[in-house]
Amino acid sequence: MNIKRILTTTIAALLPLAVSATTLIVPASGTGPGANGSHWQTELTLHNTSASPVTATLTFHDAIGAAGTSTVVVAPRATVAIADVIATRFGRESATGAIEITFDSAFAQKLTIASRTFNKTSGGEFGQDIPAIDAATAPAAGNTIVLGAPSSEADARFNFGVYAVTAATVQWDLLRADGSVATSKTVIYAAGAQNQYNDGITTFLNSSPQDSDTVHAVVTQGRALAYGSAINNASGDPTFVPGLLVRPDLRINFAGVSFGNNAAIDVADANHDGVLDRAIDVQTGSWPIGFRVVVISSTGATFELVNPPSDLKLVDTHGGILWTPSAALSGTSTTITLRVTADGSTEIITIPVNLR
Fold first, then answer.
1. C or N terminus of the chain, fewer CB within 10 Å?
2. What is the pLDDT of residues 226-240, one digit of tens each?
3. What is the CATH number of the domain that holds 102?
4. For the segment 300-309, what is each residue's pLDDT rounded down to a tens digit?
Protein backbone atom coordinates (compact mmCIF):
# COMPACT_ATOMS: atom_id res chain seq x y z
CA MET A 1 0.00 0.00 0.00
CA ASN A 2 1.16 3.55 -0.69
CA ILE A 3 2.91 5.01 2.41
CA LYS A 4 1.38 8.44 1.76
CA ARG A 5 -2.11 6.92 1.75
CA ILE A 6 -1.39 5.11 5.04
CA LEU A 7 -0.23 8.33 6.69
CA THR A 8 -3.23 10.27 5.38
CA THR A 9 -5.65 7.62 6.68
CA THR A 10 -3.93 7.54 10.08
CA ILE A 11 -3.98 11.31 10.45
CA ALA A 12 -7.65 11.45 9.45
CA ALA A 13 -8.48 8.85 12.08
CA LEU A 14 -6.73 10.91 14.77
CA LEU A 15 -8.57 14.13 13.96
CA PRO A 16 -11.52 14.93 16.27
CA LEU A 17 -14.96 14.33 14.84
CA ALA A 18 -17.20 17.35 14.32
CA VAL A 19 -19.50 17.76 17.31
CA SER A 20 -23.15 18.43 16.58
CA ALA A 21 -25.13 20.47 19.07
CA THR A 22 -28.65 20.24 20.43
CA THR A 23 -30.35 23.52 21.25
CA LEU A 24 -33.34 23.73 23.58
CA ILE A 25 -35.26 26.95 24.17
CA VAL A 26 -37.12 28.00 27.31
CA PRO A 27 -39.17 30.70 25.56
CA ALA A 28 -40.00 32.74 28.67
CA SER A 29 -38.08 33.44 31.86
CA GLY A 30 -37.53 36.47 34.03
CA THR A 31 -36.62 38.25 37.22
CA GLY A 32 -37.89 41.37 38.95
CA PRO A 33 -41.18 43.14 39.72
CA GLY A 34 -44.37 42.77 37.69
CA ALA A 35 -47.92 44.11 37.64
CA ASN A 36 -50.16 44.26 40.73
CA GLY A 37 -47.26 43.93 43.18
CA SER A 38 -46.01 40.64 41.74
CA HIS A 39 -42.33 39.68 41.87
CA TRP A 40 -41.02 37.08 39.42
CA GLN A 41 -38.07 34.78 39.13
CA THR A 42 -37.14 31.66 37.14
CA GLU A 43 -35.53 28.51 38.49
CA LEU A 44 -33.76 26.35 35.89
CA THR A 45 -33.06 22.67 36.64
CA LEU A 46 -30.77 20.37 34.61
CA HIS A 47 -30.58 16.61 35.24
CA ASN A 48 -27.97 14.34 33.65
CA THR A 49 -28.85 10.65 33.21
CA SER A 50 -25.56 9.69 31.56
CA ALA A 51 -22.36 8.24 33.07
CA SER A 52 -20.37 11.24 31.78
CA PRO A 53 -20.42 14.92 32.75
CA VAL A 54 -22.38 17.23 30.45
CA THR A 55 -21.38 20.82 29.71
CA ALA A 56 -24.22 23.11 28.69
CA THR A 57 -23.99 26.71 27.53
CA LEU A 58 -26.83 28.98 28.65
CA THR A 59 -27.58 32.10 26.60
CA PHE A 60 -30.09 34.71 27.70
CA HIS A 61 -32.03 36.42 24.89
CA ASP A 62 -34.05 39.59 25.25
CA ALA A 63 -35.59 41.96 22.71
CA ILE A 64 -32.20 42.80 21.18
CA GLY A 65 -30.99 39.18 20.93
CA ALA A 66 -28.24 37.39 22.85
CA ALA A 67 -27.65 39.29 26.10
CA GLY A 68 -25.29 37.09 28.14
CA THR A 69 -23.92 33.55 28.45
CA SER A 70 -23.07 31.16 31.25
CA THR A 71 -21.66 27.63 31.38
CA VAL A 72 -23.04 24.81 33.52
CA VAL A 73 -21.38 21.43 34.10
CA VAL A 74 -23.72 18.66 35.28
CA ALA A 75 -21.92 15.70 36.83
CA PRO A 76 -22.89 12.09 35.93
CA ARG A 77 -26.42 11.26 37.12
CA ALA A 78 -26.51 14.56 38.99
CA THR A 79 -28.89 17.51 39.13
CA VAL A 80 -28.11 21.23 39.06
CA ALA A 81 -30.83 23.68 40.12
CA ILE A 82 -30.12 27.35 39.42
CA ALA A 83 -32.27 29.67 41.55
CA ASP A 84 -33.32 33.01 40.03
CA VAL A 85 -31.21 32.15 37.00
CA ILE A 86 -31.60 35.49 35.19
CA ALA A 87 -30.25 37.36 38.21
CA THR A 88 -27.63 34.89 39.41
CA ARG A 89 -26.20 33.82 36.04
CA PHE A 90 -26.75 36.88 33.86
CA GLY A 91 -26.61 39.70 36.41
CA ARG A 92 -29.98 41.23 35.57
CA GLU A 93 -32.09 42.96 38.23
CA SER A 94 -35.23 43.16 36.10
CA ALA A 95 -35.58 41.39 32.75
CA THR A 96 -37.74 39.07 30.67
CA GLY A 97 -36.40 36.83 27.94
CA ALA A 98 -35.71 33.36 26.61
CA ILE A 99 -32.99 30.95 27.72
CA GLU A 100 -31.14 28.96 25.04
CA ILE A 101 -29.46 25.77 26.30
CA THR A 102 -26.88 24.26 23.94
CA PHE A 103 -24.97 21.00 24.49
CA ASP A 104 -23.41 18.07 22.65
CA SER A 105 -26.07 16.12 20.72
CA ALA A 106 -24.61 12.88 22.10
CA PHE A 107 -26.52 13.79 25.28
CA ALA A 108 -29.76 14.76 23.55
CA GLN A 109 -31.64 11.88 25.19
CA LYS A 110 -29.69 12.07 28.46
CA LEU A 111 -30.02 15.68 29.65
CA THR A 112 -33.38 16.98 30.86
CA ILE A 113 -34.25 20.65 31.29
CA ALA A 114 -37.03 21.99 33.49
CA SER A 115 -37.91 25.58 34.27
CA ARG A 116 -40.31 27.12 36.76
CA THR A 117 -41.23 30.79 36.70
CA PHE A 118 -43.08 31.94 39.78
CA ASN A 119 -44.45 34.95 41.63
CA LYS A 120 -42.84 35.19 45.07
CA THR A 121 -45.17 36.81 47.63
CA SER A 122 -45.44 37.11 51.41
CA GLY A 123 -48.23 34.55 51.22
CA GLY A 124 -46.16 31.98 49.31
CA GLU A 125 -45.19 31.21 45.74
CA PHE A 126 -47.45 30.89 42.70
CA GLY A 127 -45.69 29.37 39.73
CA GLN A 128 -45.84 27.73 36.34
CA ASP A 129 -43.67 25.25 34.49
CA ILE A 130 -42.45 26.45 31.10
CA PRO A 131 -41.13 23.56 28.97
CA ALA A 132 -37.89 23.64 27.01
CA ILE A 133 -38.52 23.19 23.29
CA ASP A 134 -36.14 21.76 20.70
CA ALA A 135 -35.24 24.66 18.40
CA ALA A 136 -35.20 22.28 15.42
CA THR A 137 -38.96 21.71 15.81
CA ALA A 138 -39.94 25.40 15.97
CA PRO A 139 -42.89 26.46 13.78
CA ALA A 140 -41.86 27.65 10.32
CA ALA A 141 -43.29 29.89 7.61
CA GLY A 142 -46.89 28.94 6.89
CA ASN A 143 -47.58 27.67 10.42
CA THR A 144 -50.22 29.20 12.70
CA ILE A 145 -49.78 29.14 16.49
CA VAL A 146 -52.92 29.46 18.63
CA LEU A 147 -52.81 31.10 22.08
CA GLY A 148 -56.01 30.97 24.14
CA ALA A 149 -56.61 34.02 26.33
CA PRO A 150 -58.52 33.82 29.67
CA SER A 151 -62.23 33.04 29.62
CA SER A 152 -62.77 36.02 31.97
CA GLU A 153 -60.88 39.15 31.03
CA ALA A 154 -61.97 40.77 34.32
CA ASP A 155 -60.33 38.06 36.43
CA ALA A 156 -57.04 37.58 34.60
CA ARG A 157 -54.60 39.42 32.38
CA PHE A 158 -52.95 37.81 29.38
CA ASN A 159 -49.26 38.11 28.57
CA PHE A 160 -47.89 36.58 25.38
CA GLY A 161 -44.63 36.61 23.51
CA VAL A 162 -42.37 35.18 20.84
CA TYR A 163 -38.82 33.91 20.47
CA ALA A 164 -37.35 34.15 16.96
CA VAL A 165 -35.26 31.02 16.37
CA THR A 166 -34.19 32.59 13.06
CA ALA A 167 -35.01 35.98 11.60
CA ALA A 168 -38.80 35.80 11.43
CA THR A 169 -41.94 37.68 10.50
CA VAL A 170 -45.12 37.05 12.51
CA GLN A 171 -48.64 38.22 11.77
CA TRP A 172 -50.56 38.58 15.04
CA ASP A 173 -54.36 38.20 14.71
CA LEU A 174 -56.82 38.84 17.55
CA LEU A 175 -59.98 36.71 17.21
CA ARG A 176 -63.06 37.26 19.31
CA ALA A 177 -65.10 34.36 20.71
CA ASP A 178 -67.50 34.59 17.75
CA GLY A 179 -64.63 34.11 15.26
CA SER A 180 -64.43 37.71 14.07
CA VAL A 181 -60.97 39.23 13.61
CA ALA A 182 -60.66 42.34 15.78
CA THR A 183 -57.21 43.42 14.59
CA SER A 184 -54.02 42.24 12.89
CA LYS A 185 -50.43 43.38 13.29
CA THR A 186 -47.27 42.21 11.52
CA VAL A 187 -43.84 42.40 13.17
CA ILE A 188 -40.36 41.50 11.91
CA TYR A 189 -38.05 39.97 14.55
CA ALA A 190 -34.28 39.61 14.43
CA ALA A 191 -32.81 36.14 14.92
CA GLY A 192 -32.45 35.36 18.61
CA ALA A 193 -34.77 38.14 19.78
CA GLN A 194 -37.38 37.51 22.49
CA ASN A 195 -40.30 39.88 22.94
CA GLN A 196 -43.00 39.56 25.59
CA TYR A 197 -46.12 41.73 25.50
CA ASN A 198 -47.53 42.15 29.00
CA ASP A 199 -51.30 42.59 28.91
CA GLY A 200 -50.62 42.29 25.20
CA ILE A 201 -54.13 42.61 23.80
CA THR A 202 -54.25 46.13 25.25
CA THR A 203 -50.63 47.28 25.02
CA PHE A 204 -49.51 45.56 21.81
CA LEU A 205 -52.66 44.93 19.75
CA ASN A 206 -54.32 48.17 20.92
CA SER A 207 -57.67 46.49 21.60
CA SER A 208 -59.88 45.99 24.63
CA PRO A 209 -59.74 42.40 25.94
CA GLN A 210 -62.93 40.37 25.87
CA ASP A 211 -63.86 37.02 27.40
CA SER A 212 -62.40 34.01 25.53
CA ASP A 213 -60.26 35.98 23.11
CA THR A 214 -57.78 33.98 21.02
CA VAL A 215 -54.49 35.20 19.60
CA HIS A 216 -53.10 33.67 16.40
CA ALA A 217 -49.37 34.01 15.68
CA VAL A 218 -49.01 33.32 11.95
CA VAL A 219 -45.39 32.72 10.98
CA THR A 220 -44.89 34.16 7.51
CA GLN A 221 -41.10 34.07 7.39
CA GLY A 222 -38.42 32.15 9.30
CA ARG A 223 -39.00 30.07 12.46
CA ALA A 224 -40.50 31.28 15.75
CA LEU A 225 -41.92 30.06 19.07
CA ALA A 226 -44.99 31.78 20.54
CA TYR A 227 -46.36 31.32 24.07
CA GLY A 228 -48.76 32.89 26.56
CA SER A 229 -49.37 33.26 30.28
CA ALA A 230 -52.70 33.95 31.99
CA ILE A 231 -52.25 35.61 35.39
CA ASN A 232 -55.01 35.86 37.99
CA ASN A 233 -55.31 39.50 39.01
CA ALA A 234 -56.31 38.80 42.63
CA SER A 235 -53.75 36.13 43.58
CA GLY A 236 -50.97 36.67 41.03
CA ASP A 237 -51.12 32.97 40.15
CA PRO A 238 -49.93 32.34 36.55
CA THR A 239 -50.94 29.59 34.14
CA PHE A 240 -48.66 28.84 31.20
CA VAL A 241 -50.43 28.83 27.82
CA PRO A 242 -48.50 26.73 25.27
CA GLY A 243 -48.67 27.66 21.61
CA LEU A 244 -50.76 25.09 19.74
CA LEU A 245 -49.69 24.44 16.16
CA VAL A 246 -52.59 24.28 13.67
CA ARG A 247 -53.35 24.45 9.94
CA PRO A 248 -56.57 26.49 9.75
CA ASP A 249 -58.80 26.51 6.69
CA LEU A 250 -58.54 29.69 4.66
CA ARG A 251 -61.31 32.26 4.63
CA ILE A 252 -60.47 33.04 1.01
CA ASN A 253 -60.56 30.78 -2.04
CA PHE A 254 -56.91 30.12 -2.95
CA ALA A 255 -57.17 27.81 -5.94
CA GLY A 256 -53.44 27.28 -6.58
CA VAL A 257 -50.74 28.28 -9.06
CA SER A 258 -51.00 28.50 -12.83
CA PHE A 259 -48.13 28.53 -15.34
CA GLY A 260 -48.45 30.17 -18.72
CA ASN A 261 -51.38 32.25 -19.92
CA ASN A 262 -54.12 29.67 -19.53
CA ALA A 263 -56.56 29.56 -16.64
CA ALA A 264 -55.79 25.95 -15.67
CA ILE A 265 -54.49 25.29 -12.16
CA ASP A 266 -51.17 23.44 -12.44
CA VAL A 267 -50.57 22.96 -8.69
CA ALA A 268 -53.54 23.25 -6.33
CA ASP A 269 -54.26 23.88 -2.66
CA ALA A 270 -56.88 21.15 -2.51
CA ASN A 271 -57.16 21.03 1.29
CA HIS A 272 -57.53 24.84 1.61
CA ASP A 273 -54.84 25.25 4.29
CA GLY A 274 -53.05 28.07 2.48
CA VAL A 275 -50.02 25.96 1.55
CA LEU A 276 -49.63 24.67 -1.99
CA ASP A 277 -50.09 20.88 -2.05
CA ARG A 278 -46.60 20.33 -3.44
CA ALA A 279 -43.54 22.40 -4.22
CA ILE A 280 -43.30 24.03 -7.63
CA ASP A 281 -40.10 23.56 -9.65
CA VAL A 282 -38.39 26.78 -10.73
CA GLN A 283 -35.45 26.79 -13.12
CA THR A 284 -32.54 29.01 -12.13
CA GLY A 285 -30.40 30.99 -14.53
CA SER A 286 -30.73 34.10 -16.65
CA TRP A 287 -34.29 33.65 -17.94
CA PRO A 288 -37.22 34.97 -15.87
CA ILE A 289 -39.87 32.48 -14.75
CA GLY A 290 -43.48 33.61 -14.61
CA PHE A 291 -46.51 32.12 -12.87
CA ARG A 292 -49.78 33.28 -11.37
CA VAL A 293 -51.26 32.90 -7.89
CA VAL A 294 -54.95 32.23 -8.45
CA VAL A 295 -57.47 33.47 -5.88
CA ILE A 296 -61.13 33.26 -6.79
CA SER A 297 -63.12 36.18 -5.41
CA SER A 298 -66.31 38.00 -6.27
CA THR A 299 -64.79 41.33 -5.24
CA GLY A 300 -61.25 40.84 -6.53
CA ALA A 301 -58.09 40.19 -4.54
CA THR A 302 -55.03 42.22 -3.56
CA PHE A 303 -51.60 40.61 -3.28
CA GLU A 304 -48.52 41.55 -1.24
CA LEU A 305 -45.23 39.65 -1.19
CA VAL A 306 -43.86 39.09 2.32
CA ASN A 307 -40.06 39.61 2.58
CA PRO A 308 -39.33 38.52 -1.02
CA PRO A 309 -35.84 38.29 -2.51
CA SER A 310 -34.92 41.32 -4.63
CA ASP A 311 -35.37 39.45 -7.92
CA LEU A 312 -38.95 38.30 -7.15
CA LYS A 313 -41.65 40.73 -8.28
CA LEU A 314 -45.41 41.08 -8.50
CA VAL A 315 -45.97 42.18 -12.08
CA ASP A 316 -49.71 42.90 -12.03
CA THR A 317 -52.72 43.16 -9.73
CA HIS A 318 -53.92 39.65 -10.55
CA GLY A 319 -51.27 37.63 -8.71
CA GLY A 320 -48.73 37.51 -11.54
CA ILE A 321 -45.17 36.82 -10.36
CA LEU A 322 -41.89 37.13 -12.26
CA TRP A 323 -38.66 35.69 -10.88
CA THR A 324 -35.09 35.31 -12.10
CA PRO A 325 -33.38 33.24 -9.37
CA SER A 326 -29.60 33.00 -9.48
CA ALA A 327 -28.00 29.79 -10.77
CA ALA A 328 -26.10 29.70 -7.47
CA LEU A 329 -29.38 28.70 -5.79
CA SER A 330 -29.78 25.55 -7.87
CA GLY A 331 -30.47 22.51 -5.70
CA THR A 332 -31.96 24.49 -2.81
CA SER A 333 -35.51 24.90 -1.54
CA THR A 334 -37.37 27.96 -0.31
CA THR A 335 -40.87 29.37 0.12
CA ILE A 336 -42.72 32.33 -1.35
CA THR A 337 -45.12 33.97 1.08
CA LEU A 338 -47.94 36.34 0.14
CA ARG A 339 -50.47 38.29 2.13
CA VAL A 340 -53.75 38.17 0.21
CA THR A 341 -56.93 40.11 0.90
CA ALA A 342 -60.20 38.98 -0.69
CA ASP A 343 -63.88 39.05 0.25
CA GLY A 344 -63.15 41.04 3.40
CA SER A 345 -60.50 38.65 4.79
CA THR A 346 -56.70 38.75 4.83
CA GLU A 347 -54.78 35.47 4.77
CA ILE A 348 -51.21 34.21 4.38
CA ILE A 349 -50.46 31.98 1.40
CA THR A 350 -47.30 29.86 1.23
CA ILE A 351 -45.79 28.46 -1.96
CA PRO A 352 -42.96 25.94 -1.46
CA VAL A 353 -40.33 26.04 -4.23
CA ASN A 354 -37.61 23.68 -5.44
CA LEU A 355 -34.90 25.55 -7.35
CA ARG A 356 -33.38 23.54 -10.21
1. N
2. 999 999 998 888 999
3. 2.60.290.11
4. 899 988 878 8
